[in-house]
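[[Local backbone shapes]]
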Amino acid sequence: MDNVRIGVIGVGGMGTGHANGMKDVPGATLTAVCDIDEAVCKEKSEMLEVPGYTSHTELIDSGLVDAVIIATPHYFHPPIAIDAWERGLHVLSEKPIAVTVKAADDMIEAWRKSGLKFSVMYQMRTEPIYIAAKKIVDSGALGDIYRTCMIMGWYRSQAYYDSGGWRATWTGEGGGVLINQAPHLLDIFTWLGGLPTKIKGEVRTNLHEIEVEDEAFAVLDYANGAHGYLYASTTEVPGVQLIEICGNKGKLRIQDGKLTQWDLTVGIKEHSQGAEEMWGVPKGEEVPVEMPESATGHTAITANFVRAILESEDLIAPGEEGLNAMELINGIILSGKSGEAIDVPVDRDRYDKLIEDLKASSKGKTRLREQRVTDPQHQ
């Protein structure tokens, strides 16, 4: 094979961006699209000049594709992916890979049995600041990690939430800011700092007329005794995006697109135990960080996925690593709804029961003004 034929499933929003970007991916050709909305399917099929299907099974059985990109609402990611692998197709899924950790487990198990490729659209991993941050952490330059922090204050209007019947509902989306806006940063956060072993979280609806959370916060415990704090919302202007990883030998901060690293001449523990001066402080200095050259964005993830199929290149965002963000998402919601600290891995059966109870309590949308507009960051 010297070319990968790709079908995009779900082209009412983000999927259109993926389809449009295919022309910039060497070794890939867009050969089909799918959307359950017949009018949307017809429009995109004609615009992109490829066959269109209203059923994902029709697309994957068409013989026109070697791989699929899944850009549907969240609940559909696992069953579509599993169907694709069972028919011998590679899968690139939009984030999050699932709504529940149990569904993510099933997805990963099916992928492992297939022997095919599985990637997740975590395009932030392609950005130079995060590649450089990962290199710093993996090098051990920070020493033993003792604190982590993630703050993501974004904004979404009520019009955004009113734009689709599935948005911001337990039945359609399976959560709010945690499962929609936060997964990218949660992925980077766990990529750098690892998974906690315990979560004490809270979720609330603060600003919007929606049934899911637009604000979430949690305290995290790690296996080595480290602690962390996490905050995510769609209620904040101007926005903020911050990750800190603090270690015995230094600190790393990523804030609003800038990466800063500090090195300590003497480790904190060593200095504390050996200092004779009452007000002594270990000396630290900001060190220059070399930024790698890197193709970035959604197209970079798709191109890497294609090279993984054609050339066995390592995936930038392996699909199974999508489970990490799911553990945090489910753990914070379960903790917030139960009022209890939650162990990680999250209890699969307990979370499944919670999500089913929340879906059963869903009242649907009282305000809806349908809009299908691709995120302008993808244009």
Observations:
- The chain has a mean pLDDT of 95.
- The first strand starts at residue 4 and ends at 9.
- The first helix runs from residue 14 to 21.
- The radius of gyration is 22 Å.
